[in-house]
Design goal:
binds 2-acetamido-2-deoxy-beta-D-glucopyranose, about 300 residues, Thioredoxin domain-containing protein, 5-stranded mixed sheet, 2 domains, elongated, Glutaredoxin, 12 strands, Thioredoxin_CS, Thioredoxin_domain, 9 helices, about 20% strand, single chain, alpha/beta
Length: about 300
Protein backbone atom coordinates (compact mmCIF):
# COMPACT_ATOMS: atom_id res chain seq x y z
CA UNK A 1 0.00 0.00 0.00
CA UNK A 2 2.72 2.45 1.05
CA UNK A 3 4.74 1.31 -1.92
CA UNK A 4 1.88 2.14 -4.24
CA UNK A 5 1.54 5.51 -2.62
CA UNK A 6 5.23 6.34 -3.05
CA UNK A 7 5.04 5.08 -6.60
CA UNK A 8 2.10 7.36 -7.28
CA UNK A 9 3.92 10.33 -5.73
CA UNK A 10 7.02 9.87 -7.84
CA UNK A 11 4.89 9.43 -10.93
CA UNK A 12 3.08 12.67 -10.09
CA UNK A 13 6.39 14.45 -9.50
CA UNK A 14 7.67 13.24 -12.85
CA UNK A 15 4.54 14.43 -14.65
CA UNK A 16 4.76 17.83 -12.98
CA UNK A 17 8.45 18.23 -13.77
CA UNK A 18 7.83 17.30 -17.40
CA UNK A 19 5.21 20.02 -17.80
CA UNK A 20 1.44 19.80 -17.84
CA UNK A 21 1.14 19.37 -21.61
CA UNK A 22 4.15 17.18 -22.32
CA UNK A 23 1.86 14.21 -22.91
CA UNK A 24 -0.66 16.21 -24.91
CA UNK A 25 0.02 15.86 -28.65
CA UNK A 26 -2.15 18.88 -29.43
CA UNK A 27 -0.34 21.50 -27.35
CA UNK A 28 3.24 22.64 -28.02
CA UNK A 29 5.29 22.57 -24.79
CA UNK A 30 7.79 25.30 -25.69
CA UNK A 31 11.30 26.03 -24.43
CA UNK A 32 13.79 28.77 -25.39
CA UNK A 33 15.06 26.34 -28.03
CA UNK A 34 11.72 25.96 -29.81
CA UNK A 35 9.87 29.18 -28.97
CA UNK A 36 11.09 31.39 -31.84
CA UNK A 37 10.80 28.65 -34.43
CA UNK A 38 7.18 27.89 -33.53
CA UNK A 39 5.92 31.37 -32.61
CA UNK A 40 7.92 33.81 -34.75
CA UNK A 41 9.04 31.59 -37.61
CA UNK A 42 5.67 31.19 -39.25
CA UNK A 43 2.70 33.09 -40.61
CA UNK A 44 0.44 31.39 -38.10
CA UNK A 45 -1.14 33.09 -35.10
CA UNK A 46 -0.09 31.48 -31.82
CA UNK A 47 -1.69 31.31 -28.38
CA UNK A 48 0.79 30.74 -25.56
CA UNK A 49 -0.23 29.88 -22.01
CA UNK A 50 2.53 30.74 -19.54
CA UNK A 51 1.83 28.57 -16.54
CA UNK A 52 3.11 26.89 -13.41
CA UNK A 53 2.04 23.30 -12.81
CA UNK A 54 1.07 23.96 -9.17
CA UNK A 55 -1.20 26.92 -9.91
CA UNK A 56 -4.90 26.27 -9.35
CA UNK A 57 -6.19 28.50 -12.15
CA UNK A 58 -3.79 26.80 -14.56
CA UNK A 59 -5.15 23.40 -13.60
CA UNK A 60 -8.64 24.78 -14.07
CA UNK A 61 -7.77 25.98 -17.56
CA UNK A 62 -6.10 22.71 -18.52
CA UNK A 63 -9.20 20.91 -19.86
CA UNK A 64 -10.38 23.80 -22.04
CA UNK A 65 -6.86 24.40 -23.30
CA UNK A 66 -6.39 20.76 -24.32
CA UNK A 67 -9.74 20.89 -26.08
CA UNK A 68 -8.63 24.03 -27.89
CA UNK A 69 -5.43 22.28 -29.01
CA UNK A 70 -7.38 19.32 -30.33
CA UNK A 71 -9.89 21.51 -32.15
CA UNK A 72 -7.30 23.79 -33.77
CA UNK A 73 -4.55 21.29 -34.64
CA UNK A 74 -6.45 18.11 -35.19
CA UNK A 75 -10.05 18.82 -36.20
CA UNK A 76 -9.85 22.13 -38.07
CA UNK A 77 -6.17 22.56 -38.86
CA UNK A 78 -6.45 26.33 -38.65
CA UNK A 79 -3.38 28.52 -39.24
CA UNK A 80 -3.09 28.73 -35.45
CA UNK A 81 -0.68 27.14 -32.99
CA UNK A 82 -1.67 26.31 -29.43
CA UNK A 83 1.33 26.37 -27.10
CA UNK A 84 2.36 26.50 -23.45
CA UNK A 85 5.44 27.45 -21.46
CA UNK A 86 6.11 25.99 -18.03
CA UNK A 87 7.56 28.94 -16.10
CA UNK A 88 8.37 26.71 -13.15
CA UNK A 89 11.06 25.01 -15.19
CA UNK A 90 14.42 26.78 -14.73
CA UNK A 91 15.23 26.41 -18.39
CA UNK A 92 12.21 28.56 -19.28
CA UNK A 93 12.84 31.38 -16.80
CA UNK A 94 14.42 33.69 -19.45
CA UNK A 95 11.35 33.29 -21.69
CA UNK A 96 8.92 34.09 -18.88
CA UNK A 97 11.06 37.11 -17.97
CA UNK A 98 11.25 38.29 -21.59
CA UNK A 99 7.46 38.34 -21.84
CA UNK A 100 7.14 39.88 -18.35
CA UNK A 101 4.99 37.13 -16.92
CA UNK A 102 3.83 38.12 -13.46
CA UNK A 103 0.94 35.80 -12.74
CA UNK A 104 -0.25 32.36 -13.79
CA UNK A 105 -1.75 31.57 -16.09
CA UNK A 106 -0.96 34.39 -18.51
CA UNK A 107 -2.44 33.73 -21.93
CA UNK A 108 -0.80 35.64 -24.77
CA UNK A 109 -1.66 35.83 -28.44
CA UNK A 110 1.11 36.37 -31.01
CA UNK A 111 0.09 37.83 -34.36
CA UNK A 112 2.34 37.60 -37.43
CA UNK A 113 3.22 40.79 -39.30
CA UNK A 114 1.34 41.28 -42.55
CA UNK A 115 3.24 39.87 -45.49
CA UNK A 116 2.81 42.14 -48.50
CA UNK A 117 4.79 40.13 -50.99
CA UNK A 118 7.20 42.87 -51.99
CA UNK A 119 9.18 43.25 -48.77
CA UNK A 120 12.30 41.24 -48.23
CA UNK A 121 12.88 39.70 -44.82
CA UNK A 122 12.35 42.72 -42.61
CA UNK A 123 11.05 42.29 -39.10
CA UNK A 124 9.27 38.99 -38.75
CA UNK A 125 8.74 39.22 -34.99
CA UNK A 126 5.11 38.82 -34.08
CA UNK A 127 3.08 41.33 -32.14
CA UNK A 128 2.00 40.02 -28.75
CA UNK A 129 -0.99 40.89 -26.61
CA UNK A 130 -2.21 39.55 -23.30
CA UNK A 131 -5.57 37.83 -23.56
CA UNK A 132 -7.90 39.32 -20.95
CA UNK A 133 -11.11 37.51 -21.80
CA UNK A 134 -12.94 34.60 -20.29
CA UNK A 135 -10.78 31.47 -19.99
CA UNK A 136 -13.13 29.12 -21.80
CA UNK A 137 -12.65 27.06 -24.95
CA UNK A 138 -15.12 29.13 -26.95
CA UNK A 139 -13.98 32.57 -25.81
CA UNK A 140 -10.29 31.87 -26.49
CA UNK A 141 -11.13 30.26 -29.86
CA UNK A 142 -13.22 33.27 -30.93
CA UNK A 143 -10.47 35.63 -29.91
CA UNK A 144 -7.64 33.82 -31.65
CA UNK A 145 -9.59 33.26 -34.88
CA UNK A 146 -10.28 37.01 -34.90
CA UNK A 147 -6.49 37.45 -34.92
CA UNK A 148 -5.94 35.41 -38.10
CA UNK A 149 -4.58 37.50 -40.96
CA UNK A 150 -6.91 37.72 -43.92
CA UNK A 151 -5.32 37.34 -47.35
CA UNK A 152 -8.58 36.38 -49.09
CA UNK A 153 -9.84 38.98 -51.57
CA UNK A 154 -13.54 39.75 -51.55
CA UNK A 155 -15.38 40.29 -54.84
CA UNK A 156 -18.82 41.38 -55.98
CA UNK A 157 -20.57 38.97 -58.31
CA UNK A 158 -21.54 41.69 -60.78
CA UNK A 159 -18.39 43.78 -60.37
CA UNK A 160 -15.73 44.46 -62.98
CA UNK A 161 -12.76 43.34 -60.88
CA UNK A 162 -13.55 39.63 -60.68
CA UNK A 163 -13.37 38.96 -64.48
CA UNK A 164 -9.92 40.62 -64.52
CA UNK A 165 -8.72 38.72 -61.47
CA UNK A 166 -9.81 35.40 -62.98
CA UNK A 167 -8.20 36.21 -66.33
CA UNK A 168 -4.85 36.89 -64.67
CA UNK A 169 -4.71 33.26 -63.54
CA UNK A 170 -1.40 31.85 -64.59
CA UNK A 171 0.94 29.07 -63.62
CA UNK A 172 2.96 31.43 -61.44
CA UNK A 173 0.05 32.75 -59.46
CA UNK A 174 -3.01 30.55 -59.77
CA UNK A 175 -6.32 31.70 -58.33
CA UNK A 176 -8.89 29.78 -56.34
CA UNK A 177 -12.36 31.22 -55.76
CA UNK A 178 -15.00 30.32 -53.21
CA UNK A 179 -18.60 31.01 -54.21
CA UNK A 180 -20.77 30.98 -51.12
CA UNK A 181 -23.90 32.29 -49.43
CA UNK A 182 -21.87 33.38 -46.45
CA UNK A 183 -20.23 36.76 -46.98
CA UNK A 184 -17.80 36.23 -44.08
CA UNK A 185 -14.37 34.75 -44.77
CA UNK A 186 -14.22 31.62 -42.59
CA UNK A 187 -11.17 30.79 -40.45
CA UNK A 188 -10.63 27.74 -42.68
CA UNK A 189 -10.41 29.79 -45.88
CA UNK A 190 -8.14 32.33 -44.17
CA UNK A 191 -5.94 29.43 -43.04
CA UNK A 192 -5.68 28.02 -46.57
CA UNK A 193 -4.70 31.43 -47.93
CA UNK A 194 -1.99 31.63 -45.26
CA UNK A 195 -0.64 28.17 -46.10
CA UNK A 196 -0.40 29.12 -49.80
CA UNK A 197 0.73 32.71 -49.23
CA UNK A 198 2.62 34.04 -52.28
CA UNK A 199 1.85 30.82 -54.16
CA UNK A 200 -1.91 30.75 -54.72
CA UNK A 201 -4.32 33.68 -54.42
CA UNK A 202 -7.69 33.02 -52.82
CA UNK A 203 -10.88 34.96 -53.43
CA UNK A 204 -14.44 34.86 -52.17
CA UNK A 205 -17.61 35.95 -53.90
CA UNK A 206 -20.91 35.95 -52.02
CA UNK A 207 -23.88 34.69 -54.08
CA UNK A 208 -27.51 33.95 -53.28
CA UNK A 209 -27.90 31.22 -55.90
CA UNK A 210 -25.48 28.80 -57.57
CA UNK A 211 -23.45 30.62 -60.21
CA UNK A 212 -23.51 28.81 -63.56
CA UNK A 213 -21.06 31.02 -65.43
CA UNK A 214 -18.33 33.54 -64.89
CA UNK A 215 -16.87 36.16 -67.14
CA UNK A 216 -13.14 35.61 -67.46
CA UNK A 217 -11.51 38.59 -69.15
CA UNK A 218 -14.12 39.09 -71.83
CA UNK A 219 -15.16 35.48 -72.32
CA UNK A 220 -18.07 33.77 -70.64
CA UNK A 221 -17.18 30.39 -69.18
CA UNK A 222 -19.89 27.95 -68.08
CA UNK A 223 -19.67 25.85 -64.95
CA UNK A 224 -21.23 22.41 -64.97
CA UNK A 225 -23.41 21.42 -62.04
CA UNK A 226 -22.89 24.59 -60.08
CA UNK A 227 -23.55 24.32 -56.36
CA UNK A 228 -23.35 26.48 -53.25
CA UNK A 229 -20.84 26.61 -51.71
CA UNK A 230 -18.45 25.90 -54.57
CA UNK A 231 -14.66 26.09 -54.67
CA UNK A 232 -13.25 26.58 -58.17
CA UNK A 233 -9.97 27.03 -59.98
CA UNK A 234 -9.88 28.53 -63.46
CA UNK A 235 -7.62 26.50 -65.69
CA UNK A 236 -6.28 28.91 -68.30
CA UNK A 237 -5.01 26.10 -70.53
CA UNK A 238 -8.32 24.24 -70.90
CA UNK A 239 -10.30 27.47 -70.42
CA UNK A 240 -12.59 25.81 -67.95
CA UNK A 241 -13.36 25.79 -64.25
CA UNK A 242 -12.26 22.89 -62.11
CA UNK A 243 -14.44 22.29 -59.08
CA UNK A 244 -13.42 20.88 -55.70
CA UNK A 245 -15.22 17.53 -55.78
CA UNK A 246 -16.01 17.12 -52.07
CA UNK A 247 -19.54 17.69 -50.83
CA UNK A 248 -18.29 19.52 -47.75
CA UNK A 249 -15.70 22.24 -47.46
CA UNK A 250 -14.49 21.43 -43.97
CA UNK A 251 -11.40 19.25 -44.42
CA UNK A 252 -8.38 21.49 -44.88
CA UNK A 253 -6.01 18.66 -45.79
CA UNK A 254 -8.33 17.37 -48.53
CA UNK A 255 -8.86 20.87 -49.89
CA UNK A 256 -5.11 21.54 -49.83
CA UNK A 257 -4.41 18.29 -51.69
CA UNK A 258 -6.89 19.39 -54.35
CA UNK A 259 -5.44 22.94 -54.53
CA UNK A 260 -1.96 21.50 -55.04
CA UNK A 261 -3.22 19.08 -57.68
CA UNK A 262 -5.02 21.69 -59.78
CA UNK A 263 -2.53 24.55 -59.33
CA UNK A 264 0.75 22.65 -59.16
CA UNK A 265 1.72 24.78 -56.15
CA UNK A 266 2.75 23.31 -52.81
CA UNK A 267 1.84 25.04 -49.54
CA UNK A 268 4.59 26.72 -47.48
CA UNK A 269 2.84 25.85 -44.22
CA UNK A 270 0.29 23.38 -42.93
CA UNK A 271 0.27 19.60 -42.69
CA UNK A 272 1.42 19.07 -46.29
CA UNK A 273 4.49 21.30 -45.98
CA UNK A 274 8.02 20.69 -44.80
CA UNK A 275 7.61 23.29 -42.04
CA UNK A 276 4.30 21.70 -41.01
CA UNK A 277 6.00 18.34 -40.60
CA UNK A 278 8.81 19.85 -38.51
CA UNK A 279 6.30 21.54 -36.23
CA UNK A 280 4.29 18.33 -35.95
CA UNK A 281 7.40 16.58 -34.64
CA UNK A 282 8.03 19.35 -32.08
CA UNK A 283 4.40 19.24 -30.94
CA UNK A 284 3.81 15.51 -30.72
CA UNK A 285 7.32 14.08 -30.43
CA UNK A 286 6.42 11.80 -33.34
CA UNK A 287 7.19 11.78 -37.02
CA UNK A 288 4.39 13.27 -39.12
CA UNK A 289 2.30 10.72 -40.99
CA UNK A 290 3.19 10.44 -44.68
CA UNK A 291 1.00 12.54 -46.90
CA UNK A 292 -0.17 11.88 -50.42
CA UNK A 293 2.77 13.90 -51.70
CA UNK A 294 5.37 11.66 -50.13
CA UNK A 295 8.04 13.24 -48.03
CA UNK A 296 9.63 15.63 -50.44
CA UNK A 297 7.47 18.58 -49.45
C1 LIG B 1 5.28 34.28 -44.47
O1 LIG B 1 5.09 33.77 -45.77
C2 LIG B 1 5.93 34.33 -46.76
C3 LIG B 1 5.54 33.72 -48.08
O2 LIG B 1 5.63 32.32 -48.07
C4 LIG B 1 7.39 34.08 -46.40
O3 LIG B 1 8.23 34.71 -47.34
C5 LIG B 1 7.67 34.60 -45.02
O4 LIG B 1 8.98 34.27 -44.64
C6 LIG B 1 6.69 34.03 -44.02
N1 LIG B 1 6.90 34.64 -42.72
C7 LIG B 1 7.37 33.96 -41.69
C8 LIG B 1 7.53 34.72 -40.43
O5 LIG B 1 7.63 32.78 -41.77
Amino acid sequence: MLCHFIGLLSWLAAVIAAGSYSRDPNVFELTPKTFDKVVHGSNYTTVVEFYAPWCGYCQKLHGSYSKLGKFVHDDSQYAINIAAVNCDDDVNRPLCAEYRIQGFPTVMVFRPPRHDGSSKKTDTRHISEVYQGERSFKAILNFVTSRLKNYVKKFKLDGTILPKWLAETSNEKPRVLLVTKNAQVSPLLKSLAIDYLERVDFGIVPAKQPVEQFTVGDEVVEIEEATLPMLVHYNSKTKSFEKFPGAKLNDKTKIAQWVTKVTGQKPAEGSLSKLGKKLYKIRTGKKAPASDFGDEL
